[in-house]
Design a protein that fits this description.
The chain is of the alpha/beta class and 428 residues long. 39% of the residues lie in helices and 16% in strands. The chain has helices at residues 25-45, 98-109, 127-137, 140-147, 163-172, 203-215, 238-255, 269-273, 279-295, 323-332, 338-360, 366-379, 389-394; strands at 16-23, 63-66, 73-76, 81-86, 89-94, 152-155, 183-186, 191-195, 230-231, 301-306, 315-319, 399-403, 409-413, 422-426.
């Protein structure tokens, strides 16, 4: 599904994380070193079994997505260097010791070089347009150097940012970004986070990577020789710059249509547990009330559920809008007693927990329907259900939600999946 999608990656596909306990250039450099060491250890020694499918871990570092007509493809290279982007200049930085990584990052931070156009702005376009642009720009060896890196590191220019601006820059900036790979980003105010290329992995994998790197102690080694990192060369003619300007204009217009916001609630899961309900269920009911307050109707709700307990399992849909949740929203906005509303809330929360458990155990409907729909398309078979208007509306996810609560995260988010919808990433 991801690789065949022709939509652009920022907002439409790639989510972001903002980390809780990491800030500034030295933390950025150390985390970068740990990412490369994590991959090396994973390939040489393997990872401790976490009870879920391990298929995505070998792709987590050093994998790149490549644009191609109709269907993108992935390539993985075990790499010992990263690409650091500053002021739209791409630097190749070898990673051998923590000391040398810090020195390289400090060196690049002090440079004044700047490029007017980001050669990676095409990663903000729809995939067919990016394929055409990348093919026409040439510079094949330079693009290969970027694609083959372990990770993309983004070092933004210093600037004060509000929480909403932080989120927007992590999710939808077209400068200093390359969305075809995982990116570790330091914003202009020193805040550090990730933008994740989503086609081959999900939140449980990313959380494991962050936790392992957070727990890692870097070895002390000052014996490796250090050489200043060099920029990746690009030979851009006047027509190339015109194409990049057009791509920048398109990306800017599209990405600025996404409105990012941040809400910090007055309490969290510990208080919600005193209500004798699942904290996640409580959040889902709150979102449905909020949507109804704005639009005066209920909406199809998607909540992501991990299915890593199955081989090659990734996610299933928790269809959070149920008969019970609809009744609760109507009761909550009605004139009944507090106890009557509380009971409706409990019933809706219980039902939510039931369907979430079913989805986790592979008893959801959306993945199997998607597979059947794709097979029917291949076979040229018309299935009445898939053309049914009610069925189509039921998966028009105006509320696309995901709970990725983890102690290392301060914030998590992604874009809406339909034009009149909301993307709600939340921590409880």
């Amino acid at each position: 599904m991801y690789l065949s999608g022709r939509w652009s990656l920022p907002v439409n596909s790639n989510p972001f994380y903002i980390l809780e306990n990491f800030r500034g250039l030295h933390d950025l450099a150390d985390f970068t070193t740990k990412l490369v060491l994590w991959e090396r250890n994973m390939r040489e020694e393997g990872l401790e079994d976490d009870g879920g499918c391990q298929q995505s871990y070998p792709l987590t570092v050093s994998t790149s997505r490549h644009p191609h007509p109709t269907f993108d493809y992935l390539q993985t290279h075990s790499s010992s260097y990263v690409i650091l982007i500053k002021n739209n200049v791409y630097y190749k930085v070898p990673i051998n010791t923590a000391e040398n990584t810090r020195r390289s990052f400090e060196y690049i931070q002090g440079l004044e070089e700047e490029e007017e156009f980001n050669v990676g702005v095409g990663t903000c376009l729809d995939r067919n347009s990016w394929y055409d642009l990348k093919s026409n720009l040439g510079n094949v060896k330079s693009f290969e150097t970027i694609d083959n890196a372990a990770f993309i590191i983004c070092l933004d220019s210093p600037s004060p940012l509000t929480p909403a601006e932080e989120s927007h820059n992590m999710l939808a900036s077209h400068n200093n970004r390359w969305y075809d790979k995982h990116q570790l980003i330091m914003l202009g105010n020193g805040v550090i986070g990730f933008n994740w290329e989503h086609s081959f992995s999900d939140g449980m994998i990313w959380n494991r990577l962050i936790q392992d790197c957070s727990d890692m102690t870097l070895p002390i080694n000052s014996e490796e020789e250090w050489t200043p990192p060099l920029p990746v060369p690009f030979d851009l003619k006047s027509p190339d710059k015109k194409m990049l300007q057009d791509a920048t204009d398109t990306a800017s217009k599209e990405l600025n249509q996404c409105i990012s916001n941040h809400l910090q609630g007055p309490y969290g899961k510990n208080v919600l547990k005193t209500w004798k309900v699942s904290p996640d269920a409580a959040m889902q009911m709150a979102y449905q009330i909020a949507y109804h307050n704005i639009h005066e109707r209920v909406a199809p709700v998607y909540e992501s559920c991990a299915t890593r307990n199955f081989w090659r399992g990734r996610t299933e849909t928790i269809r959070s809008c149920t008969e019970e949740s609809k009744r609760f929203v109507e009761v909550f906005k009605g004139e009944g007693s507090v106890e009557f509303k509380r009971e409706a809330f409990r019933e809706a929360a219980i039902r939510h927990v039931e369907i979430a458990g079913e989805a986790k155990m592979g008893m959801g409907v959306d993945r199997i329907f998607l597979a059947l729909e794709k097979e029917a398309e291949k076979m040229g078979v018309e299935v009445e259900l898939f053309n049914d208007e009610v069925y189509k509306e039921s998966k028009n996810w105006r509320l696309s939600t995901s709970n990725v609560s983890h102690p290392s995260l301060r914030r998590f988010g992604f874009g809406p999946v339909v034009g009149d919808g909301y993307g709600l990433g939340y921590l409880v």
